[in-house]
Automatic annotation (TrEMBL):
Name of this protein: Pyridoxamine 5'-phosphate oxidase family protein
InterPro entries: Pyridox_Oxase_N, Split_barrel_FMN-bd
Positions of the Pyridoxamine 5'-phosphate oxidase N-terminal domain: 2-77
Pfam families linked to this entry: PNPOx_N
Regions crossing the membrane: none
Length: 130
């Protein structure tokens, strides 16, 4: 999981895909954090992405760094406790201008039953399950 975290941090921006009815939706994301040995992402509960994950928690993440790319398939599980929200906001202090752990909007989700595959043009794909 640490390798996935480091890769996504290197990407700076990665892309998260959800399903909206029968339509795929993809948008840029930038938050990733490890808390209590789980990989977390963050969004706002008022956003469409939050509603889509609520309706279908299966997500996919894709990003590229150092001429390699990653795909992560997972179930996004909401953790509404204040501790992971605080940890995320400490990891990304610039978010504090838009979110707070107590605002009722900040949503932290950890990735469950995840399979990450790291690809390159010169090496065999590397599969990591967490």
């Amino acid at each position: 999981m640490e390798k996935i975290y480091e890769f996504l941090k290197k990407c700076d921006t990665y892309y998260l895909a959800t399903v909206d009815g029968d339509q795929p939706r993809v948008r840029p994301f930038g938050t990733v954090n490890i808390f209590e040995n789980k990989l977390y992402i963050q969004t706002g509960k008022v956003k469409n992405v939050s509603k889509q994950i609520g309706n279908n928690p299966k997500i996919e993440i894709c990003g590229m760094a150092d001429n390699k790319w990653i795909r992560v398939e997972a179930i996004a599980v909401e953790d509404d406790r204040i501790e992971p929200k605080r940890a995320m906001l400490e990891a990304y202090p610039t978010l504090k201008s838009m979110y707070s752990a107590e605002d009722g909007n900040t949503q932290t989700l950890y990735l469950k039953d995840a399979t990450a595959t790291i690809y390159s043009f010169t090496e065999e794909p590397q599969v990591i399950k967490f």
